[in-house]
Amino acid sequence: MIFFASASANQNDLVEREVRQAGAIDIQVSSGGVEFNADLRTAYRFCMWTRCATRLLVLVHRTDKLQSTDDLYEHSLTLPWENWVNPDKTFAITETVTDCRWIRNSHFASLRFKDAIVERIRGKFNGERPNVDRDNPDIVFHLHVNRNLVSWYVDFGGRDLSRRSYRKSQTQAVMGEFMAASLLYRSDWYRHLCAFREGQEEAPTMLDPFCGSGTICIEAALMASNTAPGLLKTESFAFLKLPIHNDDLWQETVDQAEAERCENKCKIIGWDIDSRAIEISTENAKRAGVASEIQFAVKDFTTCTEEDLPSERGCIVTDPPYGVRLDSGSAAIRRLYTSMGQIIYNVFCGWDAAILCGNSELLGYIDMKPNRTNTLINGGIECQAAHYYVFSKAEREQMIEKAKARRAERLSAPLSPGAQMAANRLKKNMASIGKEMAKEGVTCYRLYDADMPEYSAAIDIYEGKWISLQEYAAPSTIDPEDAKRRLEELVLATERTTGIDYDNIFVKRREIQKGANQYTKKGSASHFFIANENGHKFLVNFTDYLDTGLFLDHRPVRKMIESMSRDKRFLNLFCYTASATVHAAAGGALSTVSVDANANYLEWANKNMQINGFNTMNHFFYKDDCISFLRENRDVFDLIFCDPPTFSNSKGRDVFDVQRDHGYLIRSCMRHLASDGVLIFSTNYTRFKMFGELFEDFIVEDITESTIGFDFARNSKIHRCYKIRHRVEKAMVIDVPKKISKRVVKKS
């Protein structure tokens, strides 16, 4: 017989392993599960022992010759359904249809299949027919269509194959038993368990500090005692009602599984801050027969100390709340993950941890680098299982000593002539720029900007802790090895001069970016730091994007915006991470609107607002093309900040060139500006020249000089900035043309 074991996304390898352990042959892994050849004994053993499969189907027939739902009906009519069902039994139909051109409605296809079964049984039993029972049928047939390949199945294990029947009560957010088992299989706890069984290690400790309904703990106890999941529900499998069932063979399978049980020597612990959750977990563990093997307790994990440590070594396996299904404030969730990371790092030294999270951004708040990650689907939510090893105190001390030795070796080595020359320039800049920035209370500033042609890079200091070193792309005439050597010399000179450790100097290459490339995520570390500016906090990221999230040259512009925002309706176009919006909100803006076409930056923007306490209803974010927003929106604003890219040709939008199209963009902004309002227009295009007609139609004030900070004074072309006002007393909001004009640039 041919069977198909369905699996949740990214769990095929786990199900395949279970299929092999059951003794199947001719195994083939597909996107939705594992197909295999097996006899009845092997199928029983698989149902008894699988912890990860969600369903087991037995194949009745397969063809790729059908072209319509009428063909489906006619072909289904020829199959021997009387071998499976009769008028005394009830049945139900399930279906999955993928990429089939002749099936537009999968439910209609299942109805045609049902009609064929009924008609076939009527013909075999003198007009009598079986009834459909969707809730509790005797037998379930499954129709699977993938393109033109049609497969008819009988549900062998039952729709509840992945359920163990021990959960009569549950908390609000629950993970399935098969998901808990999969997480445990992926965790280092299971690796230690296997090593223990081979006599290589002691029995491992497992802790779930957010145990909820106790599912992870119970599944761990079943694994540790080698208890087959099927033993918890021997009378509820679908095959018990099938005509091919062999009761004696099934009883042999049950007896063998009972004989393979062993004593659980692992310490399994479940904590939860909610006493009701602990009551539910305890009840569920009793029904699973493992209550004596699990230590449940009411405990707040965020208050955990070394005195609470269950053992010297162990593994945390947990599914903490992540604000998707639980009605929790996002700020509270972030604080939870921050505290969780601190507790794991400081208390659980020498432990492993596997944390399942449905919001991968939250994992960044744990502030530890995972050794590996797995993607799992939990209740329809894509989750990341992040696996960590927490270094012991002795290991940390050893690593610190090695890092100190490497640093001492670097700092004691003489610099090359080129590196020494770069260090001398940086030292000079530190004495002038660094001193002035300290005087102004600025902690994030530009220290160096290609001051020497041989070392073409920008060096930005953040909080005296981190360096963002952005290398400008070398001309093609420069030998790549020379460029690489000079970059390393500059990095060494930077460490030597600033005192900031080599590992905290983040190097990126700046090149001319076009279209979506300028907004593309470059990495996936999701590691954010806090930078301060003008009394406000901002998330910065030195690894994942081309820019850090905070344009330092606009620091004076943002301060000016804050001073102008009292009781104003503020609009931030091309808002990026909304640092200007934070300043406007801090300045007392009546409302703020931030617009950007990039979802990643808008999410970042939202977080910047939240960490500064601006999460009220009068702050709005729109994922939209700014040109489209100006065309379709009819709101009026008192203060508008517009800082467009130099060039953009992103998919789905018109090509934008700031020199060619700024006239259209500025006029569009002015149509939304109140009669006494101010538009602040800025651009980083170094050769920008504003159209003369704009000076005629509006009051345009070039404020560039006053918006260049001391740290950017040597590069006065870093940006151009203007204040623009209406000449008339009242401005009207009128329709905006739908297309960016393809006008020829007018010289002024």
Walk me through what this model shows.
By secondary structure, the chain is α/β, with parallel strands linked by helices. The protein is 33% helix and 23% strand. The chain is built from 20 helices and 30 strands. It has an eight-stranded mixed beta sheet. Strand 26 (647-648) and strand 27 form a beta hairpin. Helix 1 packs across helix 2 (40-49). It is globular, with a radius of gyration of 33 Å. The model is unreliable at 325-329, 511-525 and 733-748 (pLDDT under 50).
**Percent strand:** 15-25%
Mean pLDDT: 90
Shape: globular
Strand arrangement within the widest β-sheet reads: 2-3-1-4-8-7-5-6
Percent in helix: 25-40%
Radius of gyration: 33 Å
Give the distance, in angstroms, between the N- and C-terminal Cα atoms: 82 Å
Tally of DSSP β-strands: 30
The main sheet comes to: 8 strands, mixed
Class per helix and strand makeup: alpha/beta
Low-confidence stretches: 325-329, 511-525, 733-748
Count of helical stretches: 20
Topology:
Elements: E1 2-6, H1 12-22, E2 25-30, E3 33-37, H2 40-49, E4 55-63, H3 69-77, E5 90-98, H4 106-124, E6 131-132, E7 139-146, E8 149-155, H5 177-186, H6 188-197, E9 206-208, H7 215-224, H8 247-259, E10 268-272, H9 275-288, E11 294-298, E12 315-318, H10 330-347, E13 352-357, H11 360-363, E14 372-378, E15 381-389, H12 393-412, H13 417-440, E16 444-449, E17 457-462, E18 466-472, H14 480-498, E19 505-510, E20 529-533, E21 536-540, H15 555-564, E22 569-573, H16 579-586, E23 591-596, H17 599-611, E24 619-623, H18 626-632, E25 637-642, E26 647-648, E27 656-657, H19 658-670, E28 673-683, H20 692-697, E29 698-702, E30 720-726
Parallel strand pairs: 5-6, 5-7, 9-10, 9-12, 10-11, 12-13, 18-19, 22-23, 22-25, 23-24, 25-28
Antiparallel strand pairs: 1-3, 1-4, 2-3, 4-8, 7-8, 13-15, 14-15, 16-17, 17-18, 20-21, 26-27, 28-30, 29-30
Helix pairs in contact: 1-2, 2-8, 3-4, 5-7, 7-9, 13-14, 15-16
